[in-house]
Amino acid sequence: MTNRGRLADPWPLVALAIWVLALLAYVAFVFVVPRAFGHMSQVGARQGFVYLGAVAGMLLLIFVGSIVLDSAGKIDLRPALIVAAVGLHFLPFAGAFHTRMFIPLGITMAVLGLAGLILGWITDARSAAAAAVITGIIMLIFMATDAGRAARIPRV
């Protein structure tokens, strides 16, 4: 939501409204609606190394990508670079943490980030800002949907 101010009107307000609705859905599914949890697997050293490797790779991609963007005079595209890096860092989590949601989330974020980079390079930095805003909303919707799957609505 940080980049929504870089969008043309009325999109900052539209993005905020959608984000608030997605946040309300997430809060409802997590804190209000009763949820049923299945078996929780133990997190071991392997998962810890996957996590650390994914985060290190993400930070390295952002660092190197920022240098490349800066040297090309395109540092305003950094939000899209961050979106792509965060998306890619989610992909190893699906197998390590047995959570399928990370695959579509990671792919969606990586594709939108890459699209923002390409469109921003060809046109202007608003494409990168739009990719960041849209991806932030989509990520919140993914989280709300995943929380909703575990929701159990009591029968009356």
Q: How would you describe this protein?
A:
This protein starts with 10 loop residues before the first helix and ends in a 7-residue tail after the last helix. The protein has helices spanning 11-32, 45-71, 78-97, 102-122, 126-149. It is flat. Helix 1 (11-32) runs parallel beside helix 5 (126-149). With 156 residues, the protein is an all-alpha fold. It has 5 helices and no strands.
Fraction in helix:
over 70%
Which structural class is indicated by helix and strand composition? mainly alpha
Strand content: under 5%
Distance between the termini: 39 Å
Number of strands: 0
Distinct helical segment count: 5
> How many strands, what sense, and barrel or not for the largest sheet?
none
**What is the H/E string?**
HHHHH
Rg over CA atoms, rounded to whole Å, is: 18 Å
- Overall, the morphology is flat
- Unreliable segments of 5+ consecutive residues: none
What is the mean pLDDT? 87
